[in-house]
Amino acid sequence: MIAIAVAWLLLVLGSLISVVNFYLSFLRPLRFRRGPKKYGHISGIPQIGAMMCVGAYFLFAADSPLRLVAIFSALIDTGSIHWFPIAAAWNLWRGGDSQRGG
Q: Rounded CA gap, 14 and 18, in Å?
């Protein structure tokens, strides 16, 4: 019984952190692109949301559909380690700061 309560707590908090990280990485820059305000990058909470969601995944029963929710939430967490190769490839493709000489 306590494992289910902990799993729910980890899933809710981890998903919330994952959604905030996703918003800060993709949706917030789009919102500032339209307005006259200058955009300043704000970082999310790295790795914590995904770890909580993975913990919830292992605490839920094997046939629980909440395991899919936990994995999806972990995957959208842009502060996680699995996003590092994606960000590095994107930076290389777009010509990051290291290629601009500054």
A: 6
Candidates 77, 15, 80; CA nearest to 47 is 80
Please name the amino acid found at residue 52: M
| pLDDT tens digits along 39-96 | 676 777 889 999 999 999 999 999 999 999 999 999 999 888 888 898 888 888 887 6
Structural domains of the chain, count:
1
| Helix locations, 1-102, DSSP H | 2-22, 28-34, 48-59, 66-76, 84-94, 97-100
- How far apart CA 12 and CA 76 sit, in angstroms, is 14
Question: Could you tell me how many helices (H) and strands (E) the chain has, helices first?
Answer: 6, 0
Reduced DSSP (H G I as helix, E B as strand, rest coil) percent helix, strand, coil of the chain, to 5: 75, 0, 25
Residue numbers of the domain that contains 69: 2-37+45-100
- Give the chain's length: 102
**Pairwise CA distance, residues 43 & 56, whole Å:** 24
